[in-house]
Specification:
Layout: E1 9-12, E2 15-18, E3 53-59, E4 67-70, H1 76-93, E5 99-101, E6 113-116, H2 120-125, H3 132-135, E7 140-145, E8 148-153, H4 156-171, E9 174-177, E10 180-182, E11 190-193, E12 196-199, E13 205-208, H5 211-214, H6 218-225, H7 241-244, H8 249-254, H9 256-259, H10 271-287, E14 293-295, H11 308-341, E15 348-354, E16 364-366, E17 384-386, E18 397-402, H12 418-433, E19 437-442, H13 459-469, E20 471-477, H14 488-500, H15 506-518, H16 522-543, E21 553-554, E22 557-558, H17 569-584, H18 591-613, H19 615-618, H20 624-640, E23 645-647, E24 650-651, H21 652-663
Parallel strand pairs: 4-5, 4-6, 6-8, 13-20, 14-15, 15-18, 18-19, 19-20
Antiparallel strand pairs: 1-2, 3-11, 7-8, 7-12, 9-10, 16-17, 21-22, 23-24
Helix pairs in contact: 1-4, 10-11, 14-15, 15-16, 16-17, 17-18, 18-20, 20-21
Length: 664
């Protein structure tokens, strides 16, 4: 894929060959779809499919016979895709491809056109992108019919991804961030490729927040990385009770019965409250006619109603059963409304199995054999069944697994991680009662965004595990509100790559990113990156009393790690030495050298933070003036790089004030 070893589907007549995906799909080529000219799966750093060239010239000597054709009523996504195609072809080949509407076009294999979206050319080509399952919502197809290239997706955003895929094959486009996109420049002949591609992401949702959202360039980078698909749930992807049944002063005064004794949620057994939630859902549906998902999710925390009916349900079915009974009632009412008012609309629903709301455990009971022994699943886990059928999630309800306190530094299925063992069995219980699962996971420690965050051993392993248990979509909460944290650009890149296709080599991706992003400084940045990871691993093993891990990165805690004992002068001096070499490697007489130096200096803020945080312990007889100069230097860097939050809801200025207060 666009820098991705994505699912490859090549049609040979009416058969399907899936070249690299873990999961096999099959489809027959449409009668008018071309046969693939074959192609070899070698020749790429990440094992990607190489597509054969045809005899048709795409560009030569800064000219091209090709035109870009879009629908007359093109959406913003289609217009965006056309402009990206035009701009990158111009940068790489000096050829200008005019953008025209399809008004005067019909399907003609002889014409040198690139059709984007639902044009007359597409509609007459026989190509079909209507199967949501085949394209997993964000996928696309690229076919060459004679000289005509047709690119379309199940949704228009898929056309953007398809254009990047086309450009990767034609000009070697590889995107790392909006400001770092590599491609091959050439004014000699470039031949059109024999496209017969169908690509679908491994996860329907691939959403990530943090710097990707906070940055002005975030939306562009998200498109390039095929991450952060536009959300189609209610405002905020969680905690939607705040919108559906607001705890406003007016509601609390006039409708106190809606909330019962609940301090955060509402009374799930009050008819007035259920009516209000239902009405809010209908209001949302009408105002968002294209929304595919309706999120009915709890406020963060417990705070449930303790009336007799609610207390009885909670004691019988647990908090998750209590929640699902209520959500199922709302879904049934909304579905009845849709049947009458908008029968063609296929809406899905989401609620959270969240540790922070006590709903993480599934409403199940263990199954025992006649002998009294526990019955096991084929995976060797405890077999369970739903406590009561009314606690079974509605057939259109997705359960969003949200394990706030799990360990990000070790894979979910790593048996040496004592933290994750319990979570593993909980998720397994949910999958036994529903096949509709999303996850809301985490990619940062919320008490400290600037500490080197080592989840690299778990990123790919967890995504593979998610696929195995049937999780269809991933939302990752990273450094919310922050504009930077150590190696955040790499984290975004890996998330985009691996949520589209988990079947890639993580180390190849890491090396490729660092090489391209840090340029001449890359060898030293790599040494720093790998040193930090090995140092963290050493701390983990050094403190262990048995084969189990002791160092666990959790949402609000990093045990055994945040201490001067782990970041001695010796450790910090070694790292500073690597950064000095990295800076010296940047030739500032060149544009690339200046860019690389700026990126190195920005990355060094993570090391500067460690130096300042443990300065007093590492410098017992320190000079207050020297310490203040170090703080002021850090403050200037934070200002220069417009670094925002350094921990959850706390601006970096708070950290700087805390550091200055140590001297005063």
């Amino acid at each position: 894929g666009i820098m991705m070893n994505i699912k490859r589907f090549i049609c040979f007549g009416l058969t399907t060959i899936n070249l690299s995906s873990v999961m096999a799909y099959s489809f027959g080529c449409k009668p008018d779809e071309p046969e693939s000219s074959g192609g070899s799966s070698s020749g790429s750093s990440n094992g990607e499919q190489i597509i054969e060239e045809t005899g048709t010239v795409f560009t030569e000597n800064g000219t091209s016979a090709y035109k870009i054709v879009i629908p007359e009523d093109a959406s913003s996504d289609i217009t965006y895709s056309a402009n990206e195609l035009k701009n990158y072809v111009l940068k790489a080949t000096s050829a200008t491809l005019p953008i025209e509407t399809d008004e005067d076009y019909s399907f003609n294999k002889a014409e040198t056109v690139i059709s984007l979206g639902n044009t007359t050319i597409f509609r007459e080509s026989g190509m079909d992108v209507s199967d949501r399952e085949e394209l997993n919502r964000d996928g696309f197809k690229i076919y060459l019919f004679g000289n005509s290239v047709v690119i379309n997706g199940y949704r228009d955003i898929g056309v953007i991804y398809g254009v990047y895929e086309f450009l990767e094959n034609m000009i070697g486009l590889r995107a790392y961030t909006t400001e770092e996109v590599a491609y091959t420049t050439s004014t000699s002949k470039i031949y059109m490729k024999a496209f017969a591609l169908v690509e679908a992401p491994d996860f329907t949702f691939r959403d990530i927040d943090g710097p990707l959202v906070t940055s002005n360039l975030g939306p562009q980078t998200a498109k390039l990385l095929r991450a952060n698909s536009p959300r189609t749930s209610t405002p905020h992807s969680a905690e939607t009770f705040y919108q559906l049944i607001p705890r406003s002063a007016e509601n609390l005064q006039n409708h106190s019965e809606w909330f019962g004794t609940a301090s955060l949620q509402f009374c799930f057994n009050n008819e007035g409250a259920l009516n209000k939630v239902y009405e809010s859902c209908i209001d949302y549906i009408q105002k968002n006619p294209k929304s595919e998902y309706l999120n009915i999710s709890l406020c963060d925390g417990g705070g449930y109603c303790g009336c007799d009916l609610c207390s009885d349900e909670i004691s019988k079915y647990g908090y998750s059963g209590h929640l699902i009974i209520m959500v199922n009632k709302i879904i049934e009412r909304v579905e009845a409304w849709l049947q009458e008012n908008d029968p063609s609309r296929d809406l899905q629903y989401v609620t959270m199995a969240y540790t922070g709301c006590l709903t993480f455990g599934a409403p199940v009971k263990p199954i025992y054999r006649d002998s009294g022994e526990p019955q096991l699943t084929e995976r060797g886990t405890q077999a369970v069944e739903v406590i009561d059928d009314k606690c079974r999630p509605h057939e259109k309800l997705y359960i969003q697994i949200t394990p706030l306190d799990y360990c990000f530094s070790h894979a979910w299925n790593d048996s040496k991680c004592t933290i994750n063992r319990g979570y593993y069995s909980t998720v397994d219980a949910w999958r036994q009662i529903t096949d509709r699962l999303f996850t809301y996971d985490y990619g940062i420690n919320f008490t400290n965004y600037f500490m080197f965050f080592d989840n690299y051993s778990a990123i790919k392993e967890n995504l593979i595990y998610y696929q195995e248990v049937g999780i269809k979509g991933v939302f990752r909460q990273a450094a919310t509100g922050a504009s930077w944290f150590p190696f955040c650009e790499l984290q975004n890149y890996l998330f985009g790559q691996l949520t589209w296709d988990t079947n890639q080599d993580l180390n190849v991706l890491i090396e490729d990113f660092i090489d391209n992003y840090y340029k001449d400084a890359a060898p030293y940045i790599k040494q720093y990156f790998y040193f930090m990871r090995s140092h963290i691993n050493w701390v983990d093993r050094n403190n262990a009393v048995d084969e189990n891990y002791v160092l666990h990165y959790k949402a609000y805690r990093i045990t055994y790690f945040e201490s001067a004992a782990n970041f001695t002068n010796q450790v910090l001096d070694y790292c500073y030495g690597l950064f000095e070499q990295a800076k010296a490697a940047c030739d500032v007489s060149t544009t690339d050298g200046k860019i690389a130096l700026e990126r190195v200096e920005k990355e060094m803020m993570g090391l500067d933070y460690l130096n300042l945080q443990f300065y007093e312990e590492n410098h017992l007889n320190y000079d207050p003036n020297e310490f203040m100069n170090e703080i002021l230097s850090f403050e200037r860097a934070a200002s220069r790089f417009t670094v925002a939050y350094w921990r959850e809801k706390k601006d970096v200025s708070v950290l700087i004030d805390e550091l200055k207060a140590k001297i005063a």
